[in-house]
Write a structure and sequence with these properties.
Layout lengths: L20 E2 L1 H18 L6 E2 L9 E2 L3 E4 L3 E7 L13 E8 L6 E5 L2 E2 L1 E2 L15 H18 L5 E7 L2 H5 L4 H4 L1 E2 L1 E2 L7 E2 L5 H16 L4 E5 L2 H11 L6 E3 L4 H10 L4 E7 H8 L14 H10 L4 H8 L4 H10 L4 H17 L5 E7 L5 E4 L11
Parallel strand pairs: 7-10, 8-12, 14-15, 14-16, 16-17
Antiparallel strand pairs: 1-13, 2-3, 4-5, 5-6, 6-10, 9-11, 17-18
Length: about 375
């Protein structure tokens, strides 16, 4: 049998006007709960209610269901609320089959869910990319359904995501060695709008994979142009490249706890001037280029008051850089050195050496620091 319905709706967050949503792991748990209930009772609960790790009890409408003697399948449309999540609107399915007594809960990757192919992730190589917290959520709900309806709780759960392999191409998964589709993520079950928790989690997993591969030099890059610059400068392999975007702080704080010998930070001059000024989130909505700060750096580099005033009143960071370059003031290098020192301050003495490269929009290096900090391996 089949049915079509809307997925569960996120609730509005207080004081923000934004709706939170539900993680892929929460959707997979709801789908698993509905499917196993149907396998034991012949009826799908719709909506199906689950309990999240912090006690919330959201209800999800079913978007798809199938039932026969051998299996039950339920599908939930993911609602990420007002977060710009690439998996928003994806159909997350769970297919549940009975297993012999004592087999426990076994997870399989269906179409659109990836498989782990590299060490360093919180799952062994060869396992479906269903993360530990969603796995535990599904186990817990299987146990509750089994207790309520007289099942053994021994089941195979195949999680799939419609079009997941295509969606995964715009995520970190291929770089992390998760092939064939998406990861089933989530630690709380809730997606907080613009928290970018999935991106930050990918940064952390990228560090883990690099360390497991024995990489001693990694690079945090703000985008594809800076990645190309770092590869040209240091010939780093793909698994040593961290797509940090605007989250310089996330890279530094995780590397502080999980050190590598050397960290290169590479990005646009304007973004890295924010790091130099002490900002750890480089997004334009959350930090701005401080031209007064750039003017002070220019003074340190020998700028006279007329040039400093020109920098302070420049329309953009790039315009300030160009004015200084014309006057022979190395503003790019000064920003790189100051950003490096700010990064070392965040690292708080962790055994990580740091250097910083600033580029313009074309990828040309416009500022560079030397390597400083412990465990220095200079080129």
């Amino acid at each position: 049998m089949t049915s079509e319905a809307k997925g569960g709706r996120g609730a509005q967050l207080k004081h923000t006007g934004l709706r939170h949503g539900w993680t892929t792991g929460a959707c997979a748990t709801a789908a698993t709960t509905a499917a196993y209930t149907a396998l034991l009772t012949g009826e799908f609960p719709d909506p199906v209610t689950i309990t999240l790790p912090k006690g919330q009890t959201p209800a999800f409408a079913l978007a798809a269901e199938e039932l026969d003697d051998a299996y039950a399948m339920a599908g939930i449309v993911k609602d990420a609320g007002d977060d710009p999540d690439v998996t928003h609107g994806a159909l997350v399915r769970a297919t549940v089959r009975r297993l012999p007594a004592g087999a426990g809960v076994v997870f399989k990757a269906g179409p659109g869910v990836g498989t782990v192919t590299r060490p360093g992730l919180p799952l062994p190589v060869g396992e479906p990319a269903v993360n530990p917290v969603p796995r535990q959520m599904m186990r817990d709900h299987v146990a509750r359904v089994a207790e309520r309806y007289g099942g053994s709780g021994d089941v195979e759960i195949t999680v799939s995501v419609d079009h997941g392999e295509e969606i995964a191409r715009s995520t970190w998964n291929p770089r992390l060695g998760i092939l064939g589709g998406l990861s089933v993520l989530g630690t709380t079950g809730i997606v907080v709008p613009y928290s970018c928790s999935a991106w930050i989690d990918s940064i952390r997993r990228g560090v883990d994979v690099a360390r497991a591969a024995g990489r001693t030099h990694v690079a945090g890059c703000t985008g594809s142009t800076s990645e190309k610059t770092v590869v040209a400068a240091y010939d780093l392999p793909e698994d040593a490249l961290l797509d940090m975007g605007d989250f310089a702080g996330a890279v530094l704080k995780y590397v502080r706890r999980h050190p590598v010998d050397r960290l290169t930070i590479c990005g646009g001059f304007a973004k890295l001037s924010k790091l130099a000024a002490g900002h750890l989130d480089l997004h334009s909505a959350r930090s701005q280029v401080d031209k007064g700060f750039l003017a002070e750096l220019a003074r340190r580099g020998g700028a006279d008051e007329a040039l400093a005033a020109e920098v302070a009143n420049a329309n953009t960071g790039l315009a300030a850089l160009q004015s200084c370059a014309a006057a022979g003031v190395p503003l790019g290098d000064l920003v790189a050195v100051t950003a490096r020192d700010e990064a070392l301050a965040v690292l708080r003495g962790a055994p990580v050496a740091v250097d910083v490269i600033c580029i313009d929009r074309a990828g040309t290096i416009v500022g560079r620091s030397t390597v400083a900090g412990p465990s220095v391996t200079r080129p």
